[in-house]
Amino acid sequence: MTTSLNPLQKAFMALQDAEARITELEVARRAPIAVVGLGCRAPGGIVDADSFWRLLKEERDATGPVPADRWDHEALYDPDPEAPGRVVTRNGGFLDCIDAFDPEFFGITPREAAGMDPQQRLVLEVCWEALESAGQAPTRLSGTSTGVFIGAAASDYAYLQLQTGDPNLLDAHFASGMAHSVLSGRVAYLLGLQGPALTIDTACSSSLVAIHTACQALRAGDCRLALAGGVNLILAPDIFIALSRARMLAPDGRCKTFDAAADGFARGEGCAIVALKLLADAVADRDRVLAVIRGAAINQDGPSSGLTAPNGTAQEAVIRAALAQADLAPGAVGYVEAHGTGTELGDPLEARALGAVFAKGRSRPLLIGSVKTNLGHLEGAAGAIGLVKTIVSLRQGVVPAHLHLNKPSKHIAWDDLNLTVSPKAVAFPEIDGRRIAGVSSFGFSGTNAHVIVEAPPEAPARAAPARAWALPLSAPDAGRLADLAAAVAAAITPGTRPADIARTLATGRAHLVERAVVRADSPAAAKAGFGAVAKGLEAPGVVRARVEVRDPPRTAFLFAGQGAQYSGMGSALYAAAPAFRAAFDECDTLFEPLLNRSIKTIIFEPREAEALDQTGNAQPALFAFGYALAASGDAWAWSPWPPWATRWANTRPPALAAP
Q1: Are residue 405 and residue 493 in the same domain, yes or no?
Q2: Are 337 and 284 in a shared domain?
């Protein structure tokens, strides 16, 4: 009998449904985000996380003279900031070889590449590297809802093109080559990505705002995987000149953040991209998690003493908003990677905002620092490179030295604000068993961003069968295949598992035309095999081939019929692969009532199999074998072994990133 509900009961049930939906939305809004991969380029030879950590560990300042191939900087130098058309510093943080690009690798014609802002070229390369770091073969993402979020503010290449006055440069590729929107759009176009693609300009906070926006898109379901970060290249002296007149640049070309001698910032260039997923998706996909973003927030200064002047109250508010989204108390944060440009006004304001949020109730001072003391201020990429520094520091369990701190600024009340800066490397503060950090980035446009990031959860141990594995490697040409093989061989240690190498190389990289496969059952055999590939030598278990990649790839199906099976087929795989074994056992449970016997006896026991070969009764067993094989195809989808990036023309492969 159906009981009808009275109006009050219906209203109560509707209220329950609404409350449940609100709870669901609130949980989604706070969902943690996993950093599953990263790519970076920065001054000092930084090409990946591993080289970045070496620079930090060695306490190096990567700033130096403006490269001679940019412009005649010496002719522009003048220590007087009032000198028109002159620059008060000789130094900055610069990348090497920014004109090296392989357009053919990306399917771009040389004519179009010449008209592309080098920032577009750099973003393409680093996005590719971030995907490989994440174990995501870039060529397999076509048609997926992968998002691209890029922060950028510089337009030097457009200025240079227009200053020539050459109408021939205003060709069919000029508009797409200069547009900031194409920084994100070209990545999506070339990889076939169909999630959101946005380029964001909020000046120096652009890249951290892009990362915040990517987190929001993941939580909203707009994309399942996101590439986010920023880029900055210094190709012309014009902004140098303008910043000199504004007295924003340090004459010695160094960011002396939080020091009494702070007198401006050093300009820097680079690119940093992180690959992001919802933590729940990353765990389900068995991805390697580098760090977890717990909360992120952005806001605007609003009214302040001037358009470009920072607003301490707004900085305080954005940090509190990020903590609220992370559902964390200020006391849970042990370190903050500050915006910290090294200006006499900005540093004390930021310190006061940090103290206002974090000082109360702490048993020890909050540790703060800034990577700008190592690299200079990367402007449109500053927030992202600060996040990458924080991630590698969390993974190492060490906060690297903060450089150029000789005498802490007298304009900062260090004791009252409960803040400290360490000129030497120290252990990353652990509070209640967790390592948690904040990352700040502020734009002179007034847009502020803050991200709360935590060390990743411990990855579960996974067993790997002791057997030989096929380890595939590929590159665009034989020379780069040899270079990459040498890098792989150098990265293999006695503790590296061949199963993990196989997973990373087989599913985490694009398969290009020049290929080699190494058969190895131990780290030593894998190292020897890749060493042979690097040297172009013949070796047992090593096969090379050049394969023309078809677009799209063609799939062949083989229906072998009776006779393709053999006695004991699959028994070794059943013993070695847990996923295959589980799927096979599931089939066995289903078929045993129908056959009145276990299909294991049919397949794995030679006498039974030989007897049934003549009758065709083995077909259910063969079906079960095929099903189990297909179901176990992702048996080794998780891998702790770090991927590495394809290198481009006129560069060589780096060592692997730190695990």
Answers
A1: no
A2: yes
Residue 435 pLDDT grade (very low, low, confident, very high; cuts 50, 70, 90): very high
Kindly list the distances between the CA atom of residue 73 and the CA atoms of 65, 160, 178, 358, 601, in Å, as whole numbers in the listed order.
9, 16, 24, 43, 80
How far apart, in Å, are the Cα atoms of 28 and each of 22, 183, 221, 325? 10, 29, 10, 11
More confident residue, 480 or 272: 272
Structure tokens at 84: 């028109």
Sole residue written with tokens 């809004």: 29
Distance in angstroms (rounded) separating the CA atoms of residues 37 and 395: 13
SS3 at position 631: helix
Chosen domain end from 430, 454, 478: 454
Q: What is the pLDDT of residues 397-406, one digit of tens each?
A: 999 999 999 9
Give the helix/strand (H/E) hosting 293.
strand 291-300
Query: What's the CATH number where 242 sits?
Result: 3.40.47.10
DSSP state of 432: T
Tell me whether residue 484 is in a domain: yes
Query: Looking at 423-540, which runs of residues are DSSP E strands?
Result: 426-427, 436-442, 447-454, 469-475, 514-520
Q: Does residue 287 form part of some domain?
A: yes
- The domain that contains 505 carries what CATH number? 3.30.70.3290
- Cα dihedral sign, 407-358-434-38: negative
Provide the mean pLDDT of the chain.
87
Per-residue pLDDT for 643 more than 50? Answer: no
pTM for the full model?
0.83
* Res. 647: pLDDT tops 50: no
Domain count, the chain: 3
Does 140 fall in a domain?
yes
Cβ burial, residue 223 (10 Å; 0-12/13-18/19+): buried
Query: Would the pLDDT of 639 be above 80?
Result: no
Tell whether 409 is covered by a domain. yes
Structural domain of residue 522, as residue ranges? 469-546
Least confident of 178-187, 227-236, 500-509, 620-629: 620-629
Query: Quick check: 421 pLDDT over 90?
Result: yes
